[in-house]
């Protein structure tokens, strides 16, 4: 079966050669130059998290925007691997690993939580696009900290219409999310440390709503890690 799968993959590659998700360079999922754009990490002050800041791999514009949208909304699942690598690298350089190591004995669990998508978005995409990213991050953090780190799909969105990145302004995004982000009834976040992972941070309304909801349910939110964020004033 593996031989057949490889043969089919080779035929598909010959018939439909792919290009870089960011610049269309032939034969690359994400070429070296475009991948480097996800190494331009930045920290933004945020009092709602234990580390005092949230972090992003790069700016949501130009090539980064094109690559993220190809992965998020146009089914380019091959980008799961490079984007997972970018998030793991961000966790390392941001200090998340040291934070967990220094406090792991004070909490009953360490969770990596994906930012929630609406049911309509999941139906449109046909998958939970953040899950490969958070699974890879959880495995990476567990190896680096020598403590158990697990994925917890703790949050859900209900009744939200439209795409977050299409909603104009922080006030509209906050109103769009108000009362809709909640912790699943089957999940307990009491006495846990949590890393929230998102794809794009625009105004920060989704991030703040998720963090506030988890804190109210007993979690210590270490920080938020994102693939990209919208530059101020954009």
TrEMBL record:
CDD domains for the chain: PRTases_typeI
Record keywords: Glycosyltransferase, Transferase
GO molecular function term, any single one: glycosyltransferase activity
Entry keyword Transferase: yes
Domain Phosphoribosyltransferase: 137-232
Pfam families reported for this sequence: Pribosyltran (PF00156)
PANTHER family linked: DNA UTILIZATION PROTEIN YHGH (PTHR47505)
Family: Belongs to the ComF/GntX family.
Protein name, entry field: Phosphoribosyltransferase family protein
Native species: Bifidobacterium hominis
């Amino acid at each position: 079966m593996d031989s057949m799968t490889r043969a089919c993959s080779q035929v598909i590659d010959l018939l439909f050669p792919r290009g870089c998700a960011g610049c269309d360079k032939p034969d690359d999922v994400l070429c070296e130059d475009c991948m480097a754009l996800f190494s331009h990490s930045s920290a933004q002050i945020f009092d709602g998290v234990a580390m005092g800041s949230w972090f992003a791999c790069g700016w949501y514009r130009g090539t980064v925007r094109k690559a993220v949208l190809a992965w998020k909304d146009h089914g380019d699942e091959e980008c799961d691997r490079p984007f997972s690598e970018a998030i793991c690298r961000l966790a390392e350089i941001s200090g998340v690993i040291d934070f967990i190591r220094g406090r792991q004995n004070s909490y009953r669990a360490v969770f990596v939580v994906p930012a929630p998508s609406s049911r309509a978005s999941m139906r449109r995409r046909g998958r939970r696009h953040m899950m490969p990213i958070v699974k890879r991050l959880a495995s990476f953090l567990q190896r680096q900290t020598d403590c158990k780190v697990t994925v917890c799909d703790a949050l859900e969105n209900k009744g939200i219409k439209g795409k977050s990145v299409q909603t104009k302004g922080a006030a509209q995004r906050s109103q769009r999310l108000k009362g809709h982000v909640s912790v699943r009834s089957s999940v307990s976040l009491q006495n846990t440390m949590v890393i929230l992972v998102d794809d794009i941070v625009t105004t920060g309304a989704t991030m703040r709503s998720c963090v506030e909801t988890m804190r109210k349910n007993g979690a210590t939110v270490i920080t938020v890690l994102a693939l990209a964020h919208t530059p101020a004033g954009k």
